[in-house]
Amino acid sequence: MHKVFIDGAAGTTGLEIAARLEGRSEFALITLDDERRKDASARREALNETDVAILCLPDDAAREAVALIDPASGTRVIDASSAHRTAEGWCYGFPELVGADRVADARRISNPGCYPTGFLALVAPLVREGLLPADWPYTVNAVSGYSGGGKALIERFEAGGAPAFRAYGYDMAHKHLPEMKRHAGLEHPVIFAPAVVPAYRGMIVEVPLHLGAMANDPSADTLRDALRAFYAGSKVVTVRDEGVPGELLLEQDAAPWDGIELAVFGNEGGWNARLVARLDNLGKGASGAAVQNLNLLCGLPETAGLQL
Ligand SMILES: NC(=O)C1=CN([C@@H]2O[C@H](COP(=O)(O)OP(=O)(O)OC[C@H]3O[C@@H](n4cnc5c(N)ncnc54)[C@H](OP(=O)(O)O)[C@@H]3O)[C@@H](O)[C@H]2O)C=CC1
Ligand SMILES: CC(=O)N[C@@H](CCC(=O)OP(=O)(O)O)C(=O)O
Question: What is the dihedral of CA 285, 287, 290, 296, to 10 degrees?
Fold first, then answer.
């Protein structure tokens, strides 16, 4: 039996992780009541007595949680926040990209952000294989359900009078930029244009590309085939067959989903392509990814308990 403590268990990501662990006899959840869940000494105790701590906290509180762990304790950490995604000594918790064995052996795992999960799933393997240039000026357009912003954004969108569409990130300093650049192996920061719509969960992340302007001029079919080969055997990441849909939709009441679907759409003539990832920000974008990594840490089947 593996002891698991979710620090931030009352938040959006924490609650979804607990729901995925319900009924799993391999785990015993350590819980703090409402009065003590923000109490540093109660958290210190829980953080040090658990086998795995999953941090579902704002960045500062996640850094504080790590500092509360005695380095001599056996506690292993999965951090869902963006505090450690490019930090030394942390394994980036994207098993399909870094290798499931590396995640399984790590003591400190930093889970990818939801938007970077879509971007990196599309671009990192293609850059690694030399099919897309590392020095290209990439753009990422994305739309997310409002649960991506945690309790504060959920309250804003559910209070009445919610906006029909919220574009943001105009300072071009979004906290996801460093991990997108680092883990895709890029030479330049991407331009990231995120937006939120009044649906609870789900996201579409898109990378538009002028393939014809690249020196190697790859075809959309080549990119799709390379992604399919890279993720062959994955139950979590799938690649859509060739063919262009009329539209891609985010459902208003989508069920939780821990997979991610990638697509490559090319135009006639082959100059342009749109790389598209569809996922649940609370699934592979957060809580599903945390459970996948927890399974790996505990030597359990990687997709146990996931909603695929
Ligand atoms: N939502 C998403 O789609 C994704 C979220 N993440 C990341 O996961 C982390 C959690 O996000 P999310 O669940 O959405 O956020 P929420 O705001 O929904 O939840 C955060 C929780 O942390 C609690 N908390 C804050 N400070 C402390 C503290 N010092 N000690 C203990 N608990 C504390 C909050 O308490 P209170 O209830 O009192 O406010 C709240 O319950 C964030 O870093 C976020 O960026 C990552 C990927 C996707
Ligand atoms: C819709 C929305 O507000 N999304 C959040 C990101 C959610 C997420 O991925 O969390 P991390 O920041 O921990 O990666 C944002 O843009 O800041």
Answer: -100
Nearest CA to ligand 2 atom 15: 149
Indicate if 114-281 has the same CATH topology as 2-111+286-297.
no
What is the CATH superfamily name and number for domain 2-111+286-297? NAD(P)-binding Rossmann-like Domain (3.40.50.720)
pTM exceeds cut of 0.90: yes
Could you tell me the residue ranges of all domains in the chain? 2-111+286-297, 114-281
Q: Establish whether residue 282 lines the binding site of ligand 2, counting it when its CB lies within 6 angstroms of any ligand atom.
A: no
Phi (first) and psi of residue 244, to 5 degrees: -110, 120
Q: What is the pLDDT of residue 289?
A: 98
Q: What angle do CA 241, 259, 201 make, to 5 degrees?
A: 110
User: What is the distance between the alpha carbons of residues 123 and 134, in angstroms, rounded to a whole number?
Assistant: 10
- pLDDT given at position 69: 98
Element spanning 118, H or E: helix 114-128
Q: At CA 36, angle to CA 296 and CA 51, rounded to 5?
A: 20
Rounded Cα gap, residues 55 and 66, in angstroms: 9
What topology does CATH give the domain 114-281? Dihydrodipicolinate Reductase; domain 2 (3.30.360)
pLDDT-based confidence at residue 181 (cuts at 50, 70, 90): very high
Q: Which mutation among 85, 109, 140, 144 tests ligand 2's pocket best, with the greatest number of atoms within 8 A of CB?
A: 144
Angle ∠(219,222,223) on CA atoms, nearest 5: 90
pLDDT at 215: 97
Residue among 60, 114, 250, 279 to mutate when testing ligand 2 (max atoms within 8 A of CB): 114
